[in-house]
Amino acid sequence: MDDSRFISSAEALPTPFTTICEAPSNIALIKYWGKSAPQLPKNTSLSFTLDSSITRTALNFTPQKSTSFSFEFYFEGVLKPEFNPKLEAYFNQIRAYIPWIENYHLLIKSQNSFPHSSGIASSASAMAALSVGLMEMERKLTPSLSETACSEKASFLARLGSGSAARSIEGPLMLWGKTEYLKKSSDYYAIPLKADINPVFTTYQDTILLVDKGSKPVSSTQGHQLMHKHPYAAQRFKQAKNHLKELMPILKSGDLAGFMQIVESEALSLHAMMMTSKPYYLLMKPNTLAVIEKVWNFRKETRIPLCFTLDAGANIHLLYPLADKKAVLELVESDLKNYCNQGDYLIDQVGRGAKKV
Ligand code: DP6
Fold first, then answer.
1. Distance between CA atoms of 65 and 82, rounded to whole angstroms?
2. Confidence at 115, pLDDT banded by 50, 70, 90
């Protein structure tokens, strides 16, 4: 694809502008693990957009005479210069696509709905909220921009901040990466899966068990790098492709047995890649494995379609239909919360994506 269609020709305005946007986190069903420059995925990924695990970001654009962009970043009300290198790298990646930004000083104030040290990856919601806010400014400068063009460019910009952030713009199901199964799919931005989604998936539940709240010994970005010389990389990308092929009809039919099998296999394959990287590493904790066993036993005994997935960490996402919420939350309260750090867990569900507040 030629990404020149994302280069704005808008002129900056001499007036200040403020916008507040929210974007959710997301949980991948088909995992993105492995990428090439510029942040393009080695395989197509698919995720549920979440609803209440969100970042809210206020952007304040002040016109400045000099034509060199500057910014300040506050998190939960406190100036955080330690985030500047990551934000600078992000703005350097995207400034060619939003050249109007050179005429502004940008004040960024962010907060998360979930606890900071929960072990929940916040880069997806943070980068998506920031990108949607930038697109609100671009929409003001270019009123003719369509909703779809805005969403696709917000996803494109978010991707350059963090790959998985590309999938936090809309919902409830987002697909990122070119695939023969969807004509409009792209490596450059994620798109919502709209047609023929079985209603069971439009209200799916995600209860996040906070098994470990500490910071991870190996970041996702480092993990992606380790896929370059990984002995099983080619096979893994093929597996993800096959899983997507199998999952697409399941999302239509609502075959929950098939769904659970693919989703759990993806989670364990992701962690298998970590365990077989060079150097190898482990992000699961003993309690992660204990909960997985419990989920399998519960499913066998009750026939309730509860399954798990993992992101790049020890926490467990319990995925299940809305109809089973009461039974699953009883299991969490009576048993699974004992495996969580300080008994903490988050109750979430699929959501519709980012929005202006
Ligand atoms: C395991 O998007 O966090 O959550 O692109 O380097 O920012 P960067 O990585 P990131 O990787 C997410 C990996 C994952 C799987 C997924 O979300 O698909």
1. 27
2. confident
pTM of structure:
0.96
State which ligand 1 atom lies nearest to the alpha carbon of 164: 2
3-state secondary structure of 316: strand
Given the CA of residue 30, which atom of ligand 1 is nearest to it? 18
What is the per-residue pLDDT across 182-216, written as a single tens digit (0 to 9) for each? 999 999 999 999 888 999 999 999 999 999 987 78
Token look-up 């992606």 returns 224
Task: Return mean pLDDT, the chain.
Answer: 95
Write out the E strands in the chain: 17-30, 35-36, 40-41, 45-63, 70-75, 78-79, 104-112, 173-176, 190-192, 205-209, 307-309, 316-320, 345-349, 355-356
pLDDT at res. 235: 98
Model confidence at 63: pLDDT above 90:
yes
- Which one-letter amino acid corresponds to residue 239? Q
Domains detected in the chain: 3-197 (3.30.230.10), 200-349 (3.30.70.890)
Residues 54-78, mean pLDDT to the nearest whole number: 93
C-alpha 240 to ligand 1 mean position (Å): 15
pLDDT band at 320 (very low <50, low <70, confident <90, very high): very high
Give the Å distance between the CA of 124 and the centre of ligand 1.
8
Nearest CA to ligand 1 atom 4: 311
Closest residue by CA, ligand 1 atom 3: 220
Distance 301 CA to ligand 1 centre (A): 34
The distance in angstroms from the start CA to the end CA of the chain is: 33
pLDDT for position 305: 98
What is the whole-number distance in angstroms between the Cα of residue 32 and the centre of ligand 1?
Answer: 6
Q: Are 34 and 225 in contact (CB under 8 A)?
A: no
Pocket of ligand 1 from Cβ distances under 6 Å: 28, 31-33, 39, 45, 121, 123, 162-164, 220-221, 224, 270, 311-312
Atom of ligand 1 nearest to the CA of 121: 3
